[in-house]
Design brief:
3 helices; two-stranded antiparallel sheet; 2 domains; globular; 329 residues; mainly beta; Jelly Rolls; 17-stranded mixed beta sheet; 13% helix
Amino acid sequence: MLSRKTTISYVSCRICYLHWYYYYTTHYKSYCAVLFCYATVVLGIFSPSWAPAQYKVGMPSTTGTTTPQTQSTLFGNVQTRTVQRINADSIFAAARTVQFSGFRWKMRQANVQSEPGNNFFSDAPTEIYIDSTKKLHLSINNRNRYWYCSELVADTVLGYGTYAVFLEINLDTLPANVMIEFGLTPDKALHTYVPADIAIQCTRLGMLNSPNTLQYVVSRSDSARERKERIFRPDIPFRMKGYYSTHAFTWKESSVEFASYHDHGLPTPYLGALWEFSGSTALNLSVPKATTLYRMRLRVWSAGAPVGNRPFELVVKKIQFLPLKAYER
């Protein structure tokens, strides 16, 4: 971290240059002076090696090396590595598993930064575990100056039906750069780590000053570079009344119906948000079909160190799936 004296000296130097620029160009209109000041103030030719610099945590290196590098950030010194694309088979085929809510889940483990958020992912008991009351804990933790996130993928392929997650967390206190995501992702997209085709997301990312921490997403990737998505955010923020909330979507052939409730239950008397998606002509986006194999995915990640530089933990009471009968589809 830079000392207060060093920072003040640097800022004072910059101010002197600006004053000199204003006086000289105002009174003498010197082209050379303008060029000189542009070089010193904007390009920073004379910037000392100890000049303050800010880096976004998780910013990929441009050197192509995977050697950890220490960078100064708003949250202290952290280490970053080059982002690498990882094949899903290499992660999930030999991944450790955990039994939860009647499903076997594969835990993602990545010691190199990858999407989303240029993060490391850990399957260690410090990040993912089941407690004595059979509740699931997913964490974002700092170990040896690295921030590790958590992700689970169900080992079972399911189809049309209602998917629900029962959370135990006060979403009003969710850090501004943390995302909780529960949804369905096609097998072929697992290695790209793009947002799920159908997802419930609890986050403030993209709307940092908003009290709303809830959004629903339906999307489709047409190619590696093109992605279409429809995002719905409730007009009335989903404000918590305690620590219990239930979030669900019902996937049908012609629609996806999203709902979020206060308290635990499916449903409960306390509906907080509701949205139905049946397709978008403007986006050329239709409801995903069950002809594609989809898996449930639950993950917790952050864009850099969690705001406040403190570990984050999510507690999940259960995940429930109710298949639709043929006439309900």
